[in-house]
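Anyone? Bumping this.
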Amino acid sequence: MSVNLTLLTVMGALYACGIYLIMERSLTRVLLGLMLLANATNLLILATGGYAGLAPMFSKDIDPRDYNDPLPQALILTSIVISFAVTAFMLGIIYRTWVLARRDEIQDDVEDIRVAETPSFDAEDDSEIPVETSEFPLTMVGTDGRGISDAGMSGEGAGGSAERGSATVKAGGREIKAKDAAAEEQPGSQNVTPGPEGGVK
Amino acid sequence: MNIASFAPLAVVLPILGAALTFVLIRHSRAQRAVSITLLSLTLLLECVLLASVWDGGTAAVNIGGWLPPWGIVMVVDQFSSLMLVVSSTVSLAVLVYATGQGMADGDRDAPLSIFHPTYLILVAGVSNAFLSGDLFNLYVGFEILLTASYVLMTLGGTGPRIRAGVTYVVVSVVSSVLFLIAIAMIYGATGTINMADLAIKLADLDSGTRMLLHVMLLVAFGIKAAVFPLSFWLPDSYPTAPAPVTAVFAGLLTKVGVYAMVRTETLLFPGDSLNTPLMVAALLTMVVGILGALAQSDIKRLLSFTLVSHIGYMVFGLAMSSVAGLGAAVFYVAHHITIQTSLFLVTGLIERRGGSSSIDRVAGLAKLSPILALLFFIPAMNLAGIPPFSGFLGKVGLMQAGVQLGTPLAYALVIGGALTSLLTLLAVARVWNRAFWRKPEDAENPDPVLLADPEDSDTGDRAGKRNVTLLPRTMVGSTLGLVAFGVALTVFAGPLFRVADQSAVDMLDRSSYIQAVLGENAPVPPIAQPEPAQQEGQK
C-alpha cells in the first residue's frame, strides 16, 4: 500500500497547528484547534484507504483491486457528523462564557484555588484538645467559644445565628459554664437543657 | 431465533424514548411516564439477556444481516450483559430521583424538560458501548454518551457549570480524537475494525506496531476511565453538575472506559507486555486519588476523588490478567457503579436537607434526619470496604489474586489497596463526623434549616410540609432502592462472583467470543507473548 505524500504533509501540518492551538487559553482558539485535529484525523482515515481508485460499485468487468476502499469514507462521514455536532455545542458554550464572564478564556476553578490555599492546620481536626480534668465538658467550652467567634466574624450570619451567639455567650461564663455543660451532658439532667435550647430560639 | 437477537433493543428503546420525550417536551407528566416506562422495559430486556447467558456462552447479532467481518455486530456475553443490567438499574434509579427532584422544585422551565431526552440518549450510548463488537461502533457509542453528557453537564448554563463544562468537553474531545486516530491506524494495519476479527489479525503484526496501537487505545480509554495521570479533569468537572447528573456520570461514564480497557486488554492485545505499566498506573491512581479526597471539604469533590481512586482497583484487577484478578475486577466494577452512584444521590439529599454540600457548613444531620444518616452510612462503609459489604468482598478478591500472582509489584499493589481502603474510610468518616454527628451550632455559617428545632418540624402542618419538600419521598425512595440494590450485591455476592469468574475465564480464553462472532470454524490464535508472570499466576 502506498500513500499520498501531499495528504500526509497536510495532515501533519494540521495536527501540529491543532495541538498548538488547544494549548492556548482562549476558548475560540481551543475550538479552532479541536476542529483542525478532527480534520487531520479525517485525512488520516482517508490515507488508510490507500490510493484513490474507482468508485466501489460492483461490475463484473473490473478487477477487485481497482476499487477504492469504501469503508474509510463511511468512517469519515460519521466522524464529520460527530465533530460538527461537537463544534456547534462548543460554540454555544463559548458564547455562553462570553455572556456570563465577558471573557473568551478558560476560567480558574475557584474551589481548586481555595483547597490549594487552605492551610494544613484544620481548626476542628488538628487543634489541641484542652487538658481534660473531669469529663468532656471542657472541650464543649472550646467548641462553643470558637462557634461564637466564627458567627461573629462572618457577617452573613445575620439574625438567627447572631442571636444564638449572644445567648451562648451568656451561658458561657468561665467555670459556671463548664459545670452547666457538664450537667447538660449527664443523662437525665433535664433542668439545665432549656438554657441553651432557649438560646437557640 | 434466540433471545440475544433482541439485544439491539437495549439501544433502540432508549433512543425511541428520547424521540418521544422530545416530542412531548411541553408535557412534563407524559415525559416522565414515557421515560420511566421505556427505561424499565430496557432493564427488563437486559435482565432477560443476562439470564440467557448466565451459565456462560456468547451470542452475537449481525445488525442488518451483514456478515461479521464487514457488518456491525453486537455481542452479548456475561460481562457485557452484567454491565448492562447494573447500568440500567442505576440509571433507572437516578431517573426516578431526578423526576422526584423536578416535581418537588416545579420543573416548568425549559432546561429541565430537555433533561429526559438527553438522559435517554446517554443511556442508549452506554448500552451501545457495552454491546458493541466493533471498534468503530464502540467509538460511536462513546460519542453518543459523551455528547449527551456535555448537555447534561452544562444543564441550565450557569457560570460554574459552563466553566467545568469547557474543561470536560475539551478533554473528552481530545480523548475521542485519540481513539479515532487509533482506529484509523488499526484499520491501516489490519484492514478490519471488527473486534473478533482484530483479535485474530492483530496477532500477526510485528510487536512494535502492536505496542503502538495498544498504547494509543489504552491512553484514549485511560482518559475516559480517569486513570491517574489522565484523571485530572474528573474532580474538576463532575461536582458542579446537578446531583442526579453527577451521580449517573460517576457511576457509568468512567466504567464504560474501564469496560473498553478490559476488552482491549483481554480480546485485542492479550498477554502483551503492558501489564507492569498498568499496575504502576493502578497504584498511583489509588493512592493519589484518595490523598486528593482527604484534602477536600466539599462532599461532591471528595466523592469525585474517591471515584478516581477506586478506578485503580479495577485497573489492578485487569492488569493481573489472571482469572481471579479479572473476575474480581468485573465484580468490583458492578459493585462500584452502584455504590458510587448511591453516594452521590445521598449527597444530593444532604445538599437539600442541609443547605450545602460542604462539610464545614453541614452538621447535625444524624439527629435531623436519621433516614439520611442510614442512607449515607451503608454505602459509605461499603465503599470503604468494611465487612461484610460487597466492597470488602471485591477488595478481598483483588488482594487474593494479587497474593496469588506473587510478584513484588503485585504485593505493593495489595498493600496500596489496603492503604487506600483505610484512607477511604478516613475520608468518609470525616464526612460522617462533621455532617452527621456534629451539633448544628458548631458548623461554620450553617444554613438556617439546620438550626430549626427538629421537634418543631415533625409536628405542625407548616413544618411538616416544609420537611416534605426538603426530602421528597420519590428522591428518598429511589436512593433507598439503590442502596438496597447495593446491599443485594452483597447478599448475592456468591453467584455474582461465580458469573464474574466465569466471564473472566471466557474473556481470557477468547474462543467463545471469536467463534460467536465469526462462526464455529474461526481459528483462535494463541496468545501472542505469554508473560512469565501470568503463567505463574495461573499455576
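Late reply, but here is one note on the structure posted above: Chain B has one domain: 3-534.
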